[in-house]
Fold this sequence. Notes:
Blueprint: E1 2-4, H1 8-19, E2 25-28, H2 53-66, E3 70-73
Parallel strand pairs: 1-2, 2-3
Helix pairs in contact: 1-2
Amino acid sequence: MHIIGGGPAGLTAAIYGARARLKTAILEKGAVGGQAFTTREIVNFPGFASTSGPALMKTLAEHAKSFGAQIITEEVTSVE
């Protein structure tokens, strides 16, 4: 399973894919976490009363990796 983009949705998809024992790779050209990574405070994410973007994205990335998902820093320029 290849996931293009390592923002909150991509990381969540990776968690579920890897938990289902699919070989899972996230392809992200920049910092994992997407735009949320640059957000100072997040107060509307389920399960977190308040957290910073970098802290939340680190938690999601670690969760995905704990099930075997790979994070690959690479820009996707086309899909065939």
